[in-house]
Amino acid sequence: MKFRSHCRIAAAVAFLLMTLAFASSAAAYASTEKAQTPQQPVQVFDVKAEKVVKTIDNDKQFQKFARGWLKSVTGFAPQLKSDDSCLYVYRVPLLKPAKVKVDQTELVVKEVFLFNCAGKPPLLLVFDEQRRPYLLLFNADTKPFVKKVGIPS
Description:
This protein is of the alpha+beta class. It has 3 helices and 7 strands, in the order αββαβββββα. Keywords: Signal.
């Protein structure tokens, strides 16, 4: 059962990264067509269904939520131990890269993945400029974000 849950989380992250790669190439193409590149949306990935179940316009409030999470980072998280309590992963692309300092490590982050698992503290998954993953603990409230997204209701 644990292996299956780990596979679901890995599939969620892999799918979101593929979506990002597709969106990046589409944005690059669109920027040649138009002067302004479209903003990447916020996405909700259903871990059990292994697919994106909601796409939302990425507005200023979503940017404020994600930047607030990054400002409240308290340290690196231990390795993610998943179970069936992790139902959704939220992806919030940042309009401008953000710097995050954790201990002696400084990261430049372009997007934030929120793991909000039932009965566990929320975690952030971010990638540095070399696409290395970092799992972070933070202490900002995620309830207003989840309420705005509407999943879970």
